[in-house]
Write a structure and sequence with these properties.
about 20% helix; ten-stranded antiparallel β-sheet; about 35% strand; 2 helices; Lipocalin
Amino acid sequence: MARDFIRLSTAAIAAVALIALVPVHAHQAAGVAGVWKLNVAESNNPNGPDPSTAPRPSAPRGGGRGEDMTGGAASAGAGAQAISQLSAEEKGRINKMLALLNKAATSLEIIVEGNDVTIKQDGTGFPKQNADGKKFELRNPQIGEVDIKIKIDAKGMTREVHTQDDLKVVENYTLSADGKQMTVTVKPSQPVMKIADAKIKRIYYRQ
């Protein structure tokens, strides 16, 4: 009789432990996948810098595009470098991409299917792509050619966007220890255009 009681007690304890562990493991497996809602109050500059601080091109290196300020040295032999300055078309594409990536989604949905991921911002977004850190090429009439790299791991997700105009934007999606909160930071850079770091930090909560 005592043995039967011990067996039943052991089975009951094991069942309770299993029930308690199931949601925890399921939550961990979900990772960044799921629907997230933005908390504006806890975020910092979620939509990027103030419009009055829009990025401006730095002064031309050595003069305007096509103008030789070196007395002919710029074209006199190997190792000569062309003067670099952004055109109005390049600046336009860069600003359009920045406006696109700086806008915080109120609702963020991340769908993970095997090695593929789809990121939807308020119902729309970039198409499905691989999430193994390999380059995914995208073409758009307004923003030109874009390379995107996405990497998902246990800590969250990183998305790196690189345009044909050398604009680089790194987004880090970091999960809290319990997986209920996600912090998204956005860091843009461009070798010619001066872009102020708005210290973007978006706080999302799992729905």
